[in-house]
Design a protein that fits this description.
The protein has three helices and no strands. The chain has one domain. It is 95% helix and 0% strand.
Length: 131
Amino acid sequence: MEKSIVNEVVSALEAVKSYGQPGFWILLVSILIVLVLVIAAVVYQRIVIKRFQTASKATQESFENVAADLRKRALEVKKQDEGLRQRELEVKERKQQQQVLKRSQRALKGSVSHTITLGLAGKRVPNNENQ
């Protein structure tokens, strides 16, 4: 394929040469202009790619910073959750202790009442004996 392109260019140059010097110079200048345009396009494309890579790198760093912030926040939320769970456990434990204390108080009241009732029943004096 490259040989055919080269052959075409050579045949075009020979054809222009046959028209004389002015035609040859016009063709040569045209080829140089096209070559300069191709080079400019390649350079421009490289510049655009570099800019894109720079922007992409900045975006990547930005995403990494955002990800690091999110990880920090997640860790803080996790610590807060652990603190809340601990408080909930403490509250639950206190409620259980209060329930046990209330049961113990009821049992003690019942025991004291029963003891007092038995004590009074044993010390009761029939009404006949008082008189």
